[in-house]
């Protein structure tokens, strides 16, 4: 079975699951894990869109 994802969807999926893992292993209490996971996910999204725009303008 093959799931066809666009590049943006795959990047969101990667950011989501990576943020979960970083939240679980990065902090000790449940509240800190939740906040750190959301924090990481937010920065992943900023990086995805920021680098996307940089590539868009750099390509011409």
What attributes characterize this protein structure?
60 residues
In one word, what is the shape? flat
Element pattern in H and E: HH
Helix content bin = over 70%
- Kindly, what is the distance between the CA atoms of the first and last residues, rounded to a whole number of angstroms? 37 Å
Biggest sheet descriptor: none
What is the averaged pLDDT score?
94
Please indicate the percent range of residues in DSSP E strands (runs of 2 or more): under 5%
The tally of strands reads: 0
Radius of gyration: 14 Å
Structure, explained:
With about 60 residues, this protein is an all-alpha fold. It has helices spanning about 5-25, 30-60. Helix 1 (about 5-25) runs antiparallel to helix 2 (about 30-60). It is flat.
Topology:
Layout: H1 7-26, H2 30-59
Helix pairs in contact: 1-2
Brief sketch in words of this structure:
This protein has 60 residues and is mainly alpha-helical. Helix content is 83%, strand content 0%.
